[in-house]
Design brief:
Helix 6 links the parallel strand 5 and strand 6. This protein is an alpha/beta fold. The protein has a single domain, classed as Arginase, Chain A (3-Layer(aba) Sandwich).
C-alpha cells in the first residue's frame, strides 16, 4: 500500500435516503480517533475538513419520484472534483455520509485511474448491491444507485457525464443479503462478482476476496474499497438505518481489512452509512475506525488488552 499522505475528505451527504443522520458521520469518525490511530501506525494524515455540495440546479426528478436528486447531483459534482485532486496528492479516505456519496467518490477514482492509464477495481462491502438505475428504483432513494452509475448503466440523465467508468468485470461485491429483483436481474446479466452471505457461510470470506485481489494485481489495477456499515452484522454495528441481519462478523471484517493491507493494492477508501444518532456509545464509529486501522497495517497482536486483563 502506498506511503503517500492519507487525505481525509469529509462528505456529510445525507440526501441519498429519507432518514436523516449520516451528515454527522464524518465528525463521528474524527471523534472516534481516526487520525490518531492512523498516525500511530506511522502514517501522515491531512484532514481537509468537510466538503460542501456544488450549487443546486434544476433536475428532472421524475415528478418527485426521485428523492433529493438535485442535492445528490450537487454532491456528485463536488466529490468528482475533490476526489481527483486528493488522489493526485495522496491516499483519499472519503468520510460519509450515506452511500450516494460513492457516485462521486468512485467516479473520481475512475477518472484518476484513467488519467494514470490503469484500470480501477472496486471492492463493494455492503449488504446491498446499490445497482438500481434512476428508472428501476422503487424507493427513489439514490443511495441505492451508485454502482449502476459508475459502471455506466443507462438512465442517469442529469448526473455529470463520466470521463471514465468502472468495468463491471472489475467490481466485486461481498456481503450481499438484500438485493431487489431488478438489481438481481441486472447483476445476473453482468460480469460483476456478487458474493452473498450464503457463499461466505459455505466457503468463507477469504477465497473470493483472494481471487479478486489476484485479478487486480494481474491487471496492475488501482483498488477502491467502499465499506458500508451494513456490511457488518447489526449486532456489532447498530448505527445504520438499513440494518440487515446476518452480516459479517468482527473477525470476518478484520480478516478482509488485513488481507487488503497485505495485498498492497488499495488506493482509496469510502467509509459510509454511519448514522451516529443510532449508535450505542460510539461503538459503531469505533469499530469502523478499528477496521480502517487494520487496512493500514494494525494486526491482531498489536491491539492493547483491557486494564483488567
Amino acid at each position: 500500500m502506498t506511503d503517500k499522505p492519507i487525505l481525509l475528505l469529509g462528505a456529510p451527504v445525507d440526501c441519498g435516503k429519507r432518514s436523516r443522520g449520516c451528515l454527522m458521520g464524518p465528525d463521528a469518525y474524527r471523534v472516534a480517533g481516526l487520525v490518531r490511530q492512523l498516525e500511530d501506525l506511522g502514517r501522515e494524515v491531512r484532514d481537509r475538513g468537510n466538503l460542501v455540495p456544488a450549487p443546486l440546479r434544476a433536475c428532472d426528478d421524475r415528478d418527485g419520484r426521485l428523492y433529493a436528486m438535485a442535492e445528490t447531483v450537487a454532491w456528485t459534482e463536488t466529490l468528482i472534483a475533490a476526489g481527483q485532486e486528493a488522489a493526485r496528492d495522496g491516499f483519499p479516505i472519503f468520510l460519509g455520509g450515506d452511500h450516494a456519496m460513492a457516485m462521486g467518490s468512485v467516479a473520481s477514482m475512475a477518472a484518476h485511474a484513467g488519467a494514470e492509464g490503469r484500470p480501477l477495481f472496486v471492492l463493494w462491502l455492503d449488504a446491498h448491491s446499490d445497482f438500481h438505475t434512476l428508472d428501476t428504483t422503487d424507493s427513489g432513494n439514490l443511495h441505492g444507485t451508485p454502482m449502476a452509475y459508475v459502471t455506466g448503466r443507462d438512465g442517469f440523465e442529469g448526473f455529470p457525464a463520466l470521463s471514465a467508468t468502472v468495468d463491471p468485470a472489475h467490481v466485486c461485491m461481498i456481503g450481499l443479503r438484500s438485493v431487489d429483483p431488478a438489481e438481481k436481474r441486472a447483476l445476473q446479466e453482468s460480469p460483476v462478482r456478487a458474493i452473498d452471505m450464503r457463499q461466505i457461510d459455505e466457503s468463507g470470506i477469504a477465497r473470493p476476496l483472494r481471487e479478486f485481489l489476484e485479478a487486480v494485481e494481474a491487471a496492475d489495477g488501482m483498488l477502491h474499497v467502499s465499506l458500508d456499515v451494513d456490511f457488518l452484522d447489526p449486532a456489532i454495528a447498530p448505527a445504520v438505518g438499513t440494518t440487515v441481519p446476518g452480516g459479517a462478523t468482527f473477525r470476518e471484517a478484520h480478516l478482509v481489512m488485513e488481507m487488503l493491507h497485505d495485498s498492497g493494492l488499495v488506493t482509496s477508501l469510502d467509509l459510509v452509512e454511519l448514522n451516529p444518532f443510532l449508535d450505542e456509545r460510539g461503538r459503531t464509529a469505533s469499530l469502523m475506525v478499528d477496521l480502517t486501522a487494520s487496512m493500514f497495517g494494525r494486526r491482531v497482536f498489536d491491539r492493547p488488552t483491557t486494564r483488567n486483563h
